[in-house]
Write a structure and sequence with these properties.
alpha/beta; Hypothetical Protein, Haloacid Dehalogenase-like Hydrolase, Chain: A, domain 2; six-stranded mixed beta sheet; disordered N terminus; disordered C terminus; HAD-like_sf; HAD family phosphatase; magnesium ion binding
């Protein structure tokens, strides 16, 4: 059972109870320029020096997550693809929570019947795109958005994508042939009629019920995983491997796919840029990712200044580092 703390509770001098911190990447670890600031890196290092192991828990593909994991020198197993893959670098081993090829194939066929949906399949080593990478009008807009607000951010996002080997195929049948192993997840970008994605979700949920899990980290886009798989599931696997209980874990995130992880951890932290649905599940709300909220959280934690259900004031984007 998750421990909930009263508003008056402080962690003064008690940060040592926490042995692991699991960090989301997008909207949490990185800012809108897709940069991990020096302040954030320093705060993470100090947390590690204080005895808190640090890992990443992300919806990203393993290859994209790996570069960020190396950047902050994680010292616990890496959780990626929303908990569908856990990589332990200390033992060079992996744990998979894969979809069956049959279910993935049927989901892809169903999605392909909707106009202008973009479909991707994540396996451990690659990403498979059905149709042109830029076929979906919505997906084009999704890629253009970072360019509009931050050319540097767009460049860094594309650099992260470049780490992932990509196979482009024409249709679902070719995608099935291209899958050398069972898929970790199917990603579906909806079209400009958001009700179509809702209908698609209803259709596959009715058919597969508990055999699949559906989550989201991007507007009008869903990740379809094996039933029961989530970042929380991945975090439970990691905590068991490390011999930790839930009360010894910190989880920090900003989006819908972080909710279960935030609820699972002894100390669940929401970023200031998170929607209210996420903040309401957190024990603590820090500043937003463009105000170095993750760094601020660790600094306050180590200083014994964390008060549960405290919400830090949000500020405009920190221009000090790009």
């Amino acid at each position: 059972m998750k421990v909930k703390f009263k508003n008056s509770d402080l962690f003064k001098g008690n940060y040592k109870k926490f042995k692991l911190a699991a960090l989301d990447i997008d909207g949490t670890l990185i800012n809108s320029h897709h940069i991990i600031t020096s302040r954030t890196k320093n705060a993470i290092k100090k947390a590690k020096d204080a005895g808190i192991k640090v890992t990443i828990s992300t919806g990203r593909h393993y290859r994209s997550a790996l570069s960020r994991a190396k950047e902050i020198n994680i010292d616990a197993p890496l959780i990626c693809s929303d908990g569908a893959l856990i990589k332990d670098f200390s033992t060079n081993s992996a744990i998979y929570h894969s979809l069956s090829k049959e279910i993935a194939a049927d989901i892809m066929k169903t999605a392909s019947q909707y106009d202008d949906f973009k479909i991707q399949i994540f396996t451990e080593e690659r990403k498979i795109n059905i149709g042109s990478s830029y076929r979906s009008k919505y997906f084009k807009r999704f890629l253009r958005e970072p360019l509009k607000h931050s050319p540097i951010g767009y460049f860094n996002l594309m650099r992260d994508f470049a780490f992932i080997p990509v196979t482009n195929v024409k249709n679902v049948d070719e995608a099935i042939k291209a899958m050398e192993e069972e898929p970790l997840k199917v990603v579906v970008y909806g079209n400009e009629r958001q009700e179509d994605l809702k209908l698609f979700i209803e259709e596959i949920t009715k058919k597969y019920k508990d055999e699949i899990s559906i989550t989201s980290a991007i507007d009008n886009c869903i990740d379809i995983l094996r039933g029961g798989v989530s970042k929380a599931k991945g975090l439970a696997v990691v905590s068991e491997k490390l011999g930790l209980n839930r009360e010894e874990i910190i989880a920090v995130g900003d989006n819908i796919n972080d909710i279960k992880m935030i609820e699972y951890a002894g100390l669940g932290v929401a970023m200031g840029n998170a929607p209210e649905r996420v903040k309401s599940k957190a024990d603590y709300v820090t500043a937003d990712n463009d105000s170095e909220g993750l760094a601020i959280f660790f600094e306050k934690l180590l200083a014994g200044e964390i008060q549960i259900k405290e919400t830090l004031p949000q500020t405009k984007f920190c221009q000090s580092e790009r």
